[in-house]
Specification:
The chain has about 500 residues and is an alpha/beta fold. The protein starts with a strand and ends with a helix. The protein has helices at about 5-20, 25-40, 60-70, 90-100, 135-145, 190-195, 205-210, 220-230, 255-265, 280-285, 325-335, 345-355, 370-380, 385-400, 435-445, 450-475, 480-485, 485-490, and strands at about 1-5, 50-55, 75-80, 105, 120-125, 150-155, 175-180, 195-200, 215-220, 245, 270-275, 290-295, 315, 340-345, 365, 400-405, 410, 420.
Protein backbone atom coordinates (compact mmCIF):
# COMPACT_ATOMS: atom_id res chain seq x y z
CA UNK A 1 0.00 0.00 0.00
CA UNK A 2 1.15 3.51 -0.72
CA UNK A 3 0.69 5.85 2.22
CA UNK A 4 -0.96 9.19 1.47
CA UNK A 5 0.64 11.65 3.86
CA UNK A 6 -0.64 15.02 5.02
CA UNK A 7 1.20 18.26 4.27
CA UNK A 8 2.72 18.27 7.78
CA UNK A 9 3.89 14.69 7.34
CA UNK A 10 5.43 15.52 3.97
CA UNK A 11 7.31 18.41 5.57
CA UNK A 12 8.54 16.05 8.30
CA UNK A 13 9.47 13.47 5.65
CA UNK A 14 11.68 16.02 3.92
CA UNK A 15 13.32 16.99 7.21
CA UNK A 16 13.92 13.36 8.21
CA UNK A 17 15.51 12.64 4.81
CA UNK A 18 17.79 15.66 5.08
CA UNK A 19 19.05 14.50 8.47
CA UNK A 20 19.28 10.81 7.50
CA UNK A 21 21.21 11.54 4.27
CA UNK A 22 23.37 14.31 5.72
CA UNK A 23 22.34 16.78 3.02
CA UNK A 24 20.92 20.30 2.96
CA UNK A 25 17.35 21.19 2.07
CA UNK A 26 18.71 22.87 -1.05
CA UNK A 27 20.37 19.61 -2.14
CA UNK A 28 17.05 17.82 -1.68
CA UNK A 29 15.43 20.51 -3.81
CA UNK A 30 18.00 19.84 -6.51
CA UNK A 31 17.06 16.14 -6.45
CA UNK A 32 13.44 17.10 -7.06
CA UNK A 33 14.41 19.40 -9.92
CA UNK A 34 16.47 16.70 -11.62
CA UNK A 35 13.65 14.16 -11.27
CA UNK A 36 11.14 16.59 -12.77
CA UNK A 37 13.44 17.47 -15.68
CA UNK A 38 14.12 13.79 -16.43
CA UNK A 39 10.36 13.22 -16.67
CA UNK A 40 9.97 16.34 -18.81
CA UNK A 41 12.73 15.51 -21.29
CA UNK A 42 11.20 12.11 -22.05
CA UNK A 43 8.09 13.88 -23.37
CA UNK A 44 9.08 17.29 -24.75
CA UNK A 45 12.02 18.16 -26.98
CA UNK A 46 13.92 21.40 -27.27
CA UNK A 47 11.64 22.76 -30.00
CA UNK A 48 9.13 23.59 -27.24
CA UNK A 49 9.49 27.01 -25.66
CA UNK A 50 9.07 26.64 -21.90
CA UNK A 51 7.73 29.28 -19.51
CA UNK A 52 8.12 28.79 -15.77
CA UNK A 53 5.94 30.80 -13.37
CA UNK A 54 7.39 30.85 -9.86
CA UNK A 55 6.42 32.01 -6.43
CA UNK A 56 9.03 32.95 -3.82
CA UNK A 57 8.77 29.90 -1.55
CA UNK A 58 10.29 26.45 -1.92
CA UNK A 59 7.96 25.52 -4.79
CA UNK A 60 9.23 28.62 -6.56
CA UNK A 61 12.76 27.45 -5.83
CA UNK A 62 11.87 24.17 -7.54
CA UNK A 63 10.69 26.14 -10.55
CA UNK A 64 13.92 28.16 -10.77
CA UNK A 65 16.01 24.99 -10.50
CA UNK A 66 13.95 23.31 -13.21
CA UNK A 67 14.33 26.35 -15.47
CA UNK A 68 18.10 26.35 -15.06
CA UNK A 69 18.43 22.65 -15.84
CA UNK A 70 16.24 22.98 -18.93
CA UNK A 71 18.35 25.96 -20.05
CA UNK A 72 21.48 23.85 -19.68
CA UNK A 73 19.84 21.21 -21.90
CA UNK A 74 19.30 23.87 -24.59
CA UNK A 75 15.61 24.52 -24.06
CA UNK A 76 14.32 28.03 -24.66
CA UNK A 77 13.18 29.08 -21.20
CA UNK A 78 11.47 32.17 -19.81
CA UNK A 79 11.12 32.65 -16.06
CA UNK A 80 8.46 34.73 -14.34
CA UNK A 81 8.65 35.42 -10.60
CA UNK A 82 5.50 36.64 -8.87
CA UNK A 83 6.55 38.86 -5.98
CA UNK A 84 4.17 39.28 -3.10
CA UNK A 85 5.84 38.21 0.10
CA UNK A 86 9.03 37.01 1.73
CA UNK A 87 11.40 34.59 0.04
CA UNK A 88 12.61 31.24 1.34
CA UNK A 89 16.36 30.59 1.72
CA UNK A 90 16.24 27.84 -0.92
CA UNK A 91 14.44 30.13 -3.34
CA UNK A 92 17.18 32.72 -2.85
CA UNK A 93 19.86 30.07 -3.43
CA UNK A 94 18.17 28.96 -6.67
CA UNK A 95 17.81 32.55 -7.85
CA UNK A 96 21.51 33.17 -7.23
CA UNK A 97 22.41 30.24 -9.51
CA UNK A 98 20.07 31.56 -12.18
CA UNK A 99 21.68 35.00 -12.33
CA UNK A 100 23.63 35.65 -15.50
CA UNK A 101 22.04 32.67 -17.31
CA UNK A 102 18.33 33.44 -17.47
CA UNK A 103 16.76 36.84 -16.88
CA UNK A 104 13.77 36.40 -14.60
CA UNK A 105 10.83 38.72 -15.18
CA UNK A 106 9.34 40.02 -11.96
CA UNK A 107 5.55 40.13 -11.82
CA UNK A 108 3.93 42.52 -9.36
CA UNK A 109 0.44 42.53 -10.89
CA UNK A 110 -1.79 40.13 -12.78
CA UNK A 111 -0.76 41.79 -16.06
CA UNK A 112 1.59 38.97 -17.00
CA UNK A 113 2.66 38.83 -20.66
CA UNK A 114 3.55 35.38 -21.92
CA UNK A 115 4.07 34.91 -25.64
CA UNK A 116 4.70 31.86 -27.83
CA UNK A 117 4.74 29.52 -24.88
CA UNK A 118 4.35 25.83 -25.79
CA UNK A 119 4.70 24.48 -22.26
CA UNK A 120 3.94 26.39 -19.06
CA UNK A 121 5.27 25.10 -15.76
CA UNK A 122 3.48 26.14 -12.57
CA UNK A 123 5.73 26.57 -9.51
CA UNK A 124 3.82 29.20 -7.53
CA UNK A 125 2.70 27.24 -4.46
CA UNK A 126 3.33 23.71 -3.23
CA UNK A 127 1.97 21.30 -0.62
CA UNK A 128 2.24 23.76 2.24
CA UNK A 129 -0.59 26.02 1.05
CA UNK A 130 -3.19 26.55 3.80
CA UNK A 131 -5.19 29.49 2.49
CA UNK A 132 -7.11 30.72 -0.52
CA UNK A 133 -4.97 32.39 -3.14
CA UNK A 134 -5.88 36.02 -3.74
CA UNK A 135 -4.59 39.26 -5.21
CA UNK A 136 -1.83 39.17 -7.79
CA UNK A 137 -1.36 35.42 -7.47
CA UNK A 138 -5.03 34.77 -8.22
CA UNK A 139 -4.88 37.08 -11.22
CA UNK A 140 -1.78 35.35 -12.58
CA UNK A 141 -3.33 31.90 -12.22
CA UNK A 142 -6.48 33.06 -13.98
CA UNK A 143 -4.37 34.48 -16.80
CA UNK A 144 -2.18 31.40 -17.35
CA UNK A 145 -5.20 29.10 -17.24
CA UNK A 146 -6.42 30.89 -20.36
CA UNK A 147 -3.21 30.31 -22.31
CA UNK A 148 -3.12 27.93 -25.24
CA UNK A 149 -0.23 25.91 -23.83
CA UNK A 150 0.45 22.57 -22.19
CA UNK A 151 0.23 23.25 -18.45
CA UNK A 152 2.34 21.25 -15.98
CA UNK A 153 2.24 21.63 -12.20
CA UNK A 154 5.30 21.06 -10.02
CA UNK A 155 4.30 18.75 -7.13
CA UNK A 156 0.75 20.13 -6.81
CA UNK A 157 -1.31 22.62 -8.85
CA UNK A 158 -1.06 26.06 -7.23
CA UNK A 159 -4.16 26.89 -5.20
CA UNK A 160 -5.05 23.24 -4.58
CA UNK A 161 -4.82 22.38 -0.88
CA UNK A 162 -3.90 18.75 -0.19
CA UNK A 163 -5.52 18.45 3.26
CA UNK A 164 -8.83 20.20 2.82
CA UNK A 165 -11.25 21.89 0.43
CA UNK A 166 -9.90 24.53 -1.94
CA UNK A 167 -11.47 27.81 -2.98
CA UNK A 168 -10.61 30.62 -5.34
CA UNK A 169 -8.36 30.42 -8.38
CA UNK A 170 -6.58 27.11 -8.93
CA UNK A 171 -4.07 26.23 -11.63
CA UNK A 172 -5.59 23.82 -14.15
CA UNK A 173 -2.85 21.39 -15.07
CA UNK A 174 -2.78 18.97 -17.96
CA UNK A 175 -0.12 17.08 -16.00
CA UNK A 176 0.94 17.13 -12.37
CA UNK A 177 4.42 15.84 -11.62
CA UNK A 178 4.47 15.12 -7.91
CA UNK A 179 7.38 14.11 -5.72
CA UNK A 180 7.81 10.66 -4.15
CA UNK A 181 4.15 9.76 -3.56
CA UNK A 182 0.67 10.79 -4.70
CA UNK A 183 -1.39 13.13 -2.57
CA UNK A 184 -4.85 12.36 -1.22
CA UNK A 185 -6.43 15.28 -3.03
CA UNK A 186 -5.35 13.85 -6.42
CA UNK A 187 -7.76 10.92 -5.89
CA UNK A 188 -10.88 13.01 -5.28
CA UNK A 189 -13.43 13.80 -8.02
CA UNK A 190 -13.56 17.56 -7.45
CA UNK A 191 -9.79 17.86 -7.96
CA UNK A 192 -9.47 16.08 -11.28
CA UNK A 193 -10.10 19.20 -13.39
CA UNK A 194 -7.03 20.75 -11.75
CA UNK A 195 -4.56 17.87 -11.61
CA UNK A 196 -4.91 16.37 -15.09
CA UNK A 197 -2.80 13.23 -15.38
CA UNK A 198 -0.69 12.64 -12.28
CA UNK A 199 2.86 11.34 -12.43
CA UNK A 200 4.99 10.37 -9.42
CA UNK A 201 8.78 10.83 -9.58
CA UNK A 202 11.14 9.38 -6.99
CA UNK A 203 13.36 11.91 -5.21
CA UNK A 204 14.87 9.51 -2.70
CA UNK A 205 12.89 10.40 0.43
CA UNK A 206 13.54 8.21 3.45
CA UNK A 207 12.14 4.67 3.32
CA UNK A 208 12.49 4.46 7.09
CA UNK A 209 10.19 7.43 7.63
CA UNK A 210 7.70 6.04 5.13
CA UNK A 211 7.63 2.66 6.86
CA UNK A 212 7.40 3.91 10.42
CA UNK A 213 4.97 6.81 10.01
CA UNK A 214 1.28 6.06 10.47
CA UNK A 215 -1.29 7.14 7.90
CA UNK A 216 -5.07 7.08 7.60
CA UNK A 217 -5.24 7.02 3.82
CA UNK A 218 -3.66 4.58 1.39
CA UNK A 219 -3.49 3.89 -2.34
CA UNK A 220 -3.88 0.20 -3.18
CA UNK A 221 -1.34 -1.14 -5.67
CA UNK A 222 -0.79 -4.48 -7.37
CA UNK A 223 2.09 -5.48 -5.09
CA UNK A 224 0.00 -5.12 -1.95
CA UNK A 225 -2.95 -7.03 -3.43
CA UNK A 226 -0.74 -9.93 -4.54
CA UNK A 227 0.28 -10.42 -0.91
CA UNK A 228 -3.38 -10.81 0.09
CA UNK A 229 -4.28 -13.48 -2.48
CA UNK A 230 -4.90 -16.89 -0.89
CA UNK A 231 -3.04 -19.71 -2.70
CA UNK A 232 -4.85 -22.88 -3.75
CA UNK A 233 -3.34 -26.14 -2.54
CA UNK A 234 -3.05 -29.31 -4.59
CA UNK A 235 -5.52 -31.39 -2.58
CA UNK A 236 -8.19 -28.71 -2.26
CA UNK A 237 -11.80 -29.46 -3.14
CA UNK A 238 -14.89 -27.31 -3.69
CA UNK A 239 -15.78 -27.49 -0.03
CA UNK A 240 -12.60 -25.59 0.79
CA UNK A 241 -13.77 -22.52 -1.09
CA UNK A 242 -17.07 -21.86 0.56
CA UNK A 243 -20.75 -22.05 -0.28
CA UNK A 244 -22.19 -18.63 -1.07
CA UNK A 245 -25.81 -17.54 -1.19
CA UNK A 246 -26.82 -14.80 -3.61
CA UNK A 247 -30.28 -13.29 -3.15
CA UNK A 248 -30.97 -11.38 -6.34
CA UNK A 249 -33.27 -10.77 -9.26
CA UNK A 250 -36.90 -9.85 -9.85
CA UNK A 251 -39.16 -9.73 -12.87
CA UNK A 252 -37.36 -7.71 -15.56
CA UNK A 253 -34.09 -7.61 -13.59
CA UNK A 254 -32.77 -11.15 -13.80
CA UNK A 255 -29.73 -9.88 -15.70
CA UNK A 256 -28.34 -8.41 -12.47
CA UNK A 257 -28.57 -11.81 -10.78
CA UNK A 258 -26.86 -13.52 -13.72
CA UNK A 259 -23.97 -11.04 -13.78
CA UNK A 260 -23.39 -11.30 -10.03
CA UNK A 261 -23.61 -15.11 -10.16
CA UNK A 262 -21.17 -15.43 -13.04
CA UNK A 263 -18.75 -13.05 -11.31
CA UNK A 264 -18.91 -15.04 -8.06
CA UNK A 265 -18.06 -18.24 -9.89
CA UNK A 266 -15.20 -16.62 -11.80
CA UNK A 267 -13.91 -15.25 -8.51
CA UNK A 268 -13.40 -18.75 -7.21
CA UNK A 269 -16.31 -19.63 -4.93
CA UNK A 270 -16.61 -23.40 -4.37
CA UNK A 271 -20.40 -23.58 -4.50
CA UNK A 272 -22.98 -20.96 -5.33
CA UNK A 273 -26.71 -20.98 -4.66
CA UNK A 274 -28.83 -18.20 -6.10
CA UNK A 275 -32.20 -17.49 -4.50
CA UNK A 276 -34.51 -16.19 -7.23
CA UNK A 277 -38.21 -15.55 -7.76
CA UNK A 278 -39.90 -18.60 -9.21
CA UNK A 279 -40.20 -17.13 -12.71
CA UNK A 280 -36.46 -16.52 -12.78
CA UNK A 281 -35.38 -20.06 -11.96
CA UNK A 282 -35.23 -21.32 -15.53
CA UNK A 283 -33.56 -18.11 -16.67
CA UNK A 284 -30.81 -18.39 -14.07
CA UNK A 285 -30.22 -22.11 -14.54
CA UNK A 286 -29.97 -21.71 -18.30
CA UNK A 287 -27.61 -18.72 -18.13
CA UNK A 288 -25.43 -19.97 -15.27
CA UNK A 289 -25.52 -23.80 -15.21
CA UNK A 290 -22.70 -23.92 -12.65
CA UNK A 291 -24.95 -22.32 -10.01
CA UNK A 292 -27.65 -24.00 -7.95
CA UNK A 293 -30.94 -22.24 -7.26
CA UNK A 294 -33.61 -22.00 -4.63
CA UNK A 295 -36.99 -20.58 -5.55
CA UNK A 296 -38.85 -17.88 -3.72
CA UNK A 297 -42.49 -18.38 -2.86
CA UNK A 298 -43.21 -15.38 -5.07
CA UNK A 299 -42.99 -15.75 -8.82
CA UNK A 300 -41.85 -12.16 -9.47
CA UNK A 301 -39.78 -10.89 -6.54
CA UNK A 302 -38.01 -11.82 -3.32
CA UNK A 303 -40.42 -12.26 -0.40
CA UNK A 304 -39.20 -15.16 1.74
CA UNK A 305 -38.69 -14.31 5.39
CA UNK A 306 -36.30 -17.17 6.13
CA UNK A 307 -33.30 -18.71 4.38
CA UNK A 308 -30.92 -21.46 5.38
CA UNK A 309 -28.12 -20.33 7.64
CA UNK A 310 -25.35 -22.76 6.68
CA UNK A 311 -23.92 -20.59 3.90
CA UNK A 312 -20.39 -19.22 4.23
CA UNK A 313 -21.42 -15.77 3.07
CA UNK A 314 -24.47 -14.00 1.69
CA UNK A 315 -24.88 -11.34 -0.99
CA UNK A 316 -28.15 -9.51 -1.41
CA UNK A 317 -29.42 -6.69 -3.58
CA UNK A 318 -28.70 -6.95 -7.34
CA UNK A 319 -31.95 -6.54 -9.26
CA UNK A 320 -33.99 -7.25 -6.12
CA UNK A 321 -36.56 -4.47 -6.44
CA UNK A 322 -38.35 -2.84 -3.53
CA UNK A 323 -41.79 -4.45 -3.39
CA UNK A 324 -43.46 -4.36 0.03
CA UNK A 325 -42.95 -8.10 0.41
CA UNK A 326 -39.28 -7.74 -0.56
CA UNK A 327 -38.84 -5.05 2.07
CA UNK A 328 -40.34 -7.27 4.75
CA UNK A 329 -38.28 -10.30 3.73
CA UNK A 330 -35.08 -8.26 3.65
CA UNK A 331 -35.69 -6.98 7.17
CA UNK A 332 -36.12 -10.49 8.50
CA UNK A 333 -33.04 -11.77 6.69
CA UNK A 334 -30.92 -9.04 8.28
CA UNK A 335 -32.10 -10.06 11.73
CA UNK A 336 -31.80 -13.78 11.05
CA UNK A 337 -28.47 -14.41 9.39
CA UNK A 338 -25.94 -12.65 11.62
CA UNK A 339 -22.96 -13.34 9.33
CA UNK A 340 -20.87 -11.44 6.77
CA UNK A 341 -22.96 -10.12 3.91
CA UNK A 342 -22.47 -8.03 0.81
CA UNK A 343 -25.21 -5.40 0.59
CA UNK A 344 -25.69 -3.68 -2.76
CA UNK A 345 -28.21 -1.95 -5.00
CA UNK A 346 -31.78 -2.35 -3.73
CA UNK A 347 -30.56 -3.66 -0.38
CA UNK A 348 -28.93 -0.25 0.11
CA UNK A 349 -32.02 1.56 -1.12
CA UNK A 350 -34.14 -0.29 1.44
CA UNK A 351 -31.69 0.63 4.19
CA UNK A 352 -31.93 4.27 3.12
CA UNK A 353 -35.73 4.11 3.09
CA UNK A 354 -35.79 2.67 6.62
CA UNK A 355 -32.59 3.83 8.39
CA UNK A 356 -33.43 1.93 11.58
CA UNK A 357 -32.47 -1.23 9.67
CA UNK A 358 -28.86 -0.06 9.69
CA UNK A 359 -28.82 -1.17 13.33
CA UNK A 360 -29.55 -4.74 12.22
CA UNK A 361 -26.53 -5.08 9.92
CA UNK A 362 -24.12 -7.69 11.33
CA UNK A 363 -20.56 -6.56 11.97
CA UNK A 364 -18.14 -7.44 9.19
CA UNK A 365 -20.45 -6.74 6.26
CA UNK A 366 -19.54 -4.93 3.03
CA UNK A 367 -21.74 -2.15 1.66
CA UNK A 368 -21.12 -1.03 -1.94
CA UNK A 369 -22.97 2.22 -2.66
CA UNK A 370 -22.45 4.39 -5.71
CA UNK A 371 -22.56 8.16 -4.95
CA UNK A 372 -26.35 8.36 -5.39
CA UNK A 373 -26.98 5.44 -3.01
CA UNK A 374 -24.45 6.85 -0.57
CA UNK A 375 -26.22 10.21 -0.55
CA UNK A 376 -29.50 8.48 0.26
CA UNK A 377 -27.80 6.77 3.21
CA UNK A 378 -25.95 9.73 4.76
CA UNK A 379 -27.35 12.90 3.20
CA UNK A 380 -25.52 15.48 1.11
CA UNK A 381 -21.97 16.69 1.67
CA UNK A 382 -20.23 20.04 1.26
CA UNK A 383 -17.13 18.82 -0.55
CA UNK A 384 -15.04 15.70 -1.13
CA UNK A 385 -13.35 15.95 2.27
CA UNK A 386 -16.71 16.17 4.01
CA UNK A 387 -17.82 13.16 1.96
CA UNK A 388 -14.81 11.15 3.19
CA UNK A 389 -15.64 12.09 6.77
CA UNK A 390 -19.21 10.84 6.30
CA UNK A 391 -17.81 7.67 4.74
CA UNK A 392 -15.53 6.88 7.69
CA UNK A 393 -18.31 7.75 10.13
CA UNK A 394 -20.68 5.25 8.49
CA UNK A 395 -18.07 2.47 8.40
CA UNK A 396 -17.19 3.07 12.04
CA UNK A 397 -20.84 3.17 13.11
CA UNK A 398 -21.76 -0.06 11.32
CA UNK A 399 -18.48 -1.87 12.08
CA UNK A 400 -18.54 -2.62 8.37
CA UNK A 401 -16.56 -1.86 5.24
CA UNK A 402 -18.17 0.72 2.96
CA UNK A 403 -16.95 0.89 -0.64
CA UNK A 404 -17.90 4.19 -2.27
CA UNK A 405 -17.75 3.23 -5.93
CA UNK A 406 -16.37 5.45 -8.66
CA UNK A 407 -12.98 6.48 -10.02
CA UNK A 408 -10.45 5.51 -7.31
CA UNK A 409 -13.22 3.79 -5.31
CA UNK A 410 -12.82 4.67 -1.62
CA UNK A 411 -12.82 1.64 0.70
CA UNK A 412 -13.56 2.79 4.24
CA UNK A 413 -12.68 0.39 7.06
CA UNK A 414 -14.15 0.57 10.58
CA UNK A 415 -10.78 1.70 12.00
CA UNK A 416 -11.01 5.15 10.31
CA UNK A 417 -8.69 4.22 7.44
CA UNK A 418 -9.58 4.59 3.77
CA UNK A 419 -7.99 2.64 0.92
CA UNK A 420 -8.28 4.12 -2.55
CA UNK A 421 -8.37 1.74 -5.48
CA UNK A 422 -5.92 2.30 -8.33
CA UNK A 423 -7.59 0.22 -11.07
CA UNK A 424 -10.62 0.87 -13.27
CA UNK A 425 -11.58 3.21 -16.09
CA UNK A 426 -14.56 5.29 -17.30
CA UNK A 427 -15.74 2.43 -19.52
CA UNK A 428 -16.86 0.65 -16.35
CA UNK A 429 -19.53 3.30 -15.78
CA UNK A 430 -22.15 1.02 -17.27
CA UNK A 431 -25.18 -0.89 -16.01
CA UNK A 432 -24.32 -4.14 -14.29
CA UNK A 433 -20.75 -3.23 -13.34
CA UNK A 434 -21.73 -2.98 -9.67
CA UNK A 435 -23.47 -6.37 -9.82
CA UNK A 436 -20.19 -7.89 -10.99
CA UNK A 437 -18.39 -6.34 -8.01
CA UNK A 438 -21.00 -7.79 -5.65
CA UNK A 439 -20.39 -11.28 -7.03
CA UNK A 440 -16.61 -10.94 -6.65
CA UNK A 441 -16.88 -9.73 -3.05
CA UNK A 442 -19.34 -12.48 -2.17
CA UNK A 443 -17.01 -15.15 -3.54
CA UNK A 444 -14.03 -13.81 -1.60
CA UNK A 445 -15.96 -13.66 1.67
CA UNK A 446 -17.16 -17.23 1.13
CA UNK A 447 -13.56 -18.37 0.59
CA UNK A 448 -12.55 -17.10 4.00
CA UNK A 449 -11.05 -13.73 3.17
CA UNK A 450 -11.49 -11.22 5.97
CA UNK A 451 -13.98 -8.46 5.30
CA UNK A 452 -11.17 -5.92 4.90
CA UNK A 453 -9.11 -8.08 2.56
CA UNK A 454 -12.14 -9.12 0.51
CA UNK A 455 -13.06 -5.48 -0.05
CA UNK A 456 -9.54 -4.43 -1.06
CA UNK A 457 -8.82 -7.44 -3.27
CA UNK A 458 -12.28 -7.54 -4.82
CA UNK A 459 -12.34 -3.87 -5.75
CA UNK A 460 -8.85 -4.06 -7.23
CA UNK A 461 -9.60 -7.22 -9.25
CA UNK A 462 -12.88 -5.75 -10.51
CA UNK A 463 -11.08 -2.65 -11.77
CA UNK A 464 -8.20 -4.66 -13.23
CA UNK A 465 -10.60 -6.86 -15.19
CA UNK A 466 -12.23 -3.69 -16.49
CA UNK A 467 -8.85 -2.30 -17.51
CA UNK A 468 -7.93 -5.48 -19.36
CA UNK A 469 -11.33 -5.51 -21.07
CA UNK A 470 -10.98 -1.87 -22.13
CA UNK A 471 -7.63 -2.63 -23.78
CA UNK A 472 -9.49 -5.01 -26.07
CA UNK A 473 -12.95 -3.46 -26.30
CA UNK A 474 -12.25 0.22 -25.73
CA UNK A 475 -13.98 2.23 -23.04
CA UNK A 476 -17.03 3.25 -25.08
CA UNK A 477 -18.10 -0.30 -25.95
CA UNK A 478 -17.33 -1.90 -22.58
CA UNK A 479 -20.24 -3.75 -20.93
CA UNK A 480 -20.50 -5.53 -17.60
CA UNK A 481 -20.23 -9.00 -19.14
CA UNK A 482 -16.82 -8.02 -20.49
CA UNK A 483 -15.64 -7.42 -16.92
CA UNK A 484 -16.74 -10.93 -15.94
CA UNK A 485 -15.02 -12.42 -18.98
CA UNK A 486 -11.71 -10.80 -18.05
CA UNK A 487 -11.74 -11.86 -14.40
CA UNK A 488 -9.60 -14.94 -15.16
CA UNK A 489 -6.91 -12.75 -16.76
CA UNK A 490 -7.09 -10.34 -13.83
CA UNK A 491 -6.57 -13.07 -11.25
CA UNK A 492 -3.70 -14.51 -13.30
CA UNK A 493 -1.93 -11.17 -12.96
CA UNK A 494 -2.04 -11.55 -9.17
CA UNK A 495 -0.72 -15.08 -8.64
Amino acid sequence: MIKLFTSEQIKAWDAFTIQENGITSFELMQRACRAFVAWFMERYDTSNKVCVVCGTGNNGGDGLGIALLLHEWNYRVEVFVVRGGSTSPDFDASLKLLKGKIVEKEITSSAIEINDCAVLIDALFGTGLTRQISGTYAGVIKKVNELNAIRIAVDVPSGLRIDGPSEGEIFKADHTVTFQAPKLVFLLPQSKIYTGRCHVVDIGLSKTFEKETLANHFLVNRKSVKRLIKPRHQFSHKGNFGHALLIAGSKGKMGAAILAARAALRAGVGLLTVHVPAHGNEILQSAVPEAMTTQDQSSEFFSDREVETFYSAVGIGPGLGQAAETFSGFEQILKQLGKPMVLDADALNMLAAKPVLLNEIPAGCILTPHPGEFKRLVGDWQDDFDKLEKLTTLARRLKAVVILKGANSAIALPDNTIYFNSTGNPGMATGGSGDVLTGILLALLAQGYSTNDAAIVGTFVHGLAGDLASCEMGETSLIASDIVNYLPAAFKRLV
